[in-house]
Amino acid sequence: MKLGAFEYYLVVINVVGLMVFLINKLLYDHTATGQIDALLTIVSLLGGSAGIIAAILIFDRKSHKENMMSRIFVACIFVIQIILLLIVKGNLADHITFSFWDFFKRNKILSFYLIVINIVTFAAFAMDKIAAIEHRSRIRIVTLLGLSFVGGSIGAWLAMYLFRHKTRKDYFTVGVPLTLVMHIVIIFFLMNTK
């Protein structure tokens, strides 16, 4: 299989993504300032998200509040870029449809899953809000964001603003809408695949 210019670009930008992540991690570990998060974001948007995710999985699997925003951002961008790559490679139907309702009527299991995961996510955010008020043990941030990522973004978004919970944390105020955009892109692609 012969690689074209686009494939070479993807290989190079993902190697750059891996290297930039490693440099950023070293800066976080050994300096008080000087991190290059903005450069990491740019490399991710340019197609290097797979390299960044590989670096995270190999070198820095532990997540904490300081790196949560970048992780949710890179994960969502990675999924969107996979869909865009599939579209560029010709996996889109000849005619484009936006009939979401018909798609969900035809795919009842997916519809049921999305309803259940959004109810579970909404309930998890509500339980976390109650625990915060009562100063009890809280639900982990990774769990709340994970529920949003696997399909519960609407439930998370509704709970955030209905209960005024997690609305001051960028990894929620940016991360949850980004996961919602990711879900829309996924559904749009599934609706229009060959």
Q: What is this structure's SSE topology?
A:
Blueprint: H1 5-30, H2 37-59, H3 65-88, H4 100-106, H5 108-133, H6 141-162, H7 170-173, H8 175-191
Write up this protein.
There is one protein chain. The protein is mainly alpha-helical and 194 residues long. Helices cover 77% and strands 0% of the residues. It has two domains: 84 residues; 92 residues, no CATH class. It contains eight helices and no strands. The longest helix has 26 residues. The chain is flat. The two termini are 23 Å apart. The model has no long low-confidence stretch (mean pLDDT 91). It comes from Blautia ammoniilytica. This is DUF1294 domain-containing protein. Pfam families: DUF1294 (PF06961).
Percentage of residues in DSSP E strands: under 5%
**Average pLDDT over all residues:** 91
| Low-confidence residue ranges | none
Distance between the termini: 23 Å
